[in-house]
Design goal:
The protein is built from 15 helices and 11 strands. The chain is α/β, with parallel strands linked by helices. The chain has 2 domains: 119 residues, Rossmann fold; 217 residues, Alpha-Beta Complex (Toxin ADP-ribosyltransferase, Chain A, domain 1), CATH 3.90.176. The N and C termini lie far apart (57 Å). InterPro entries: ART.
Length: 378
């Protein structure tokens, strides 16, 4: 259908709904240029996003009576499928989402169908990608997305802090735990591995040393070497922790292959480590972590003594207090940073997140490092 001929249909839709919004989520601004211009000419409220976080924030900010028609590019869909399967149904359950479409032509078909139905004519021959969220179940959304093989990522507001202070009603922590659970449960595949490597081959295109490490990972990596690779100074450690700190879903999804492997190896090592501690009648261990944090984070810790804290990343600690002090550095050299030494008491019988002494499996064999899995709460 010619996009311009849809103006009458959109006008009728707007009579049925107080406000109609068309939102296009695409990984690039230079694709479907003509179609995007057509939408801007036809629909009063048209927004185009290249960032999933900004897109979801925008949708959340709309009035409750708004009806959103969301167009997705192919880059984004696999992530939302996995998130929804894992229980994060808030996005597809949002009553404001009137339809999710693979391209603009399907949007106009949907609008045509809505107008015809409201006037008493039901063109059953017109294919619809997704009906109104009040009429179609979440599972139908997923089925259609799977058939379309599109790729979408959604996430909450980006958080760039390494430490979270927990309160009794911390929705961000709960959401993050859901996300991590889904990533850890996702089935690994060679495609996931190659997606990750291809992405960072491009990122480090001009760095011959990192290119060699990427090739090494491609040729020699297996699950038993996950800890070794995490502790090695390479693209993997830097980019994974960057993704974990910012909680950007696209980047976390890119690392799903390795996150799952590293957690799995820690689960395996945890059983042996706890058995060893029990053999020596050790019910509690003390570990230390030295790091620099921002002044704002430090103030939050001071103001919330007695509450729990959670770190977004896999957490490296040591049994040697002096080593931790070295890693704490000298925050006095910068007015925006503070050096902190965290003393963490661990009851080995409380088994929520795995942890283990990784000395024998680390790239650095001379450190008694205790590594905690992602999302550990203290």
């Amino acid at each position: 259908m010619d996009s311009y001929k849809s103006l009458a249909y959109l006008n009728n839709i707007q009579k049925r709904y107080d406000t109609v919004y068309v939102i296009w989520l695409d990984e690039a601004n230079d694709t479907h240029i003509e179609a995007k211009q057509n939408l801007n000419n036809i629909v009063q409220h048209t927004s185009i996003f290249t960032n999933a976080d900004e897109c979801i924030t925008h949708i959340s900010s709309l009035n409750e009576i708004a009806k959103v028609f969301l167009i997705l590019s192919k880059y984004y869909a696999q992530i939302i499928i996995e998130l929804e399967r894992g229980g994060l149904s808030t996005f597809l359950s949002d009553d404001k989402i009137a339809g999710i479409f693979h391209d603009e032509n399907r949007l106009f078909l949907k609008l045509t169908h809505d107008v015809a139905r409201s006037s008493g004519n039901h063109p059953s021959s017109i294919p619809m990608i997704i009906m109104n969220s009040q009429e179609e179940s979440r599972q139908n959304y997923l089925k259609v997305l799977e058939l379309e093989q599109s790729r979408l990522s959604v996430s909450p507001t980006i958080i760039r802090h390494s430490i979270k202070v927990m309160s009794k009603q911390c929705g961000t922590y709960t959401w993050h735990q859901f996300l991590l659970t889904i990533l850890l449960r996702m089935k690994n595949s060679d495609d996931a591995k190659m997606n990750m490597l291809n992405e960072y081959r491009l990122c480090y295109n001009d760095d011959i040393f990192e290119q060699r490490k990427i090739d090494d990972f491609d040729e020699n990596y297996d699950l038993t070497k996950a800890v070794w690779w995490y502790t090695r100074d390479s693209f993997l450690y830097r980019e994974l922790n960057k993704a974990l700190r910012t909680e950007k879903i696209e980047q976390l999804f890119m690392f799903r292959y390795f996150i799952s492997d590293l957690h799995t190896q820690l689960v395996q090592l945890h059983s042996d480590y706890v058995a060893l501690l029990e053999e020596y009648d050790r019910d509690v261990i003390m570990v230390y972590r030295g790091q620099t944090i921002t002044s704002d984070e430090f103030q939050k810790l001071e103001q919330n003594i007695g509450r729990f804290i959670s770190m977004n990343t896999f957490i490296s600690t040591t049994t040697d207090r002096n080593v931790a002090i070295i890693y704490a550095g000298d925050g006095s050299q910068s007015p925006d940073l503070e050096s902190v030494l965290l003393e963490i008491t661990i009851d080995i019988h409380i088994r929520t997140k795995p942890f283990a002494n990784i000395r024998e499996y680390s790239y650095f064999h001379d450190e008694d490092e205790i590594l905690f899995s992602i999302g550990t709460l203290f």
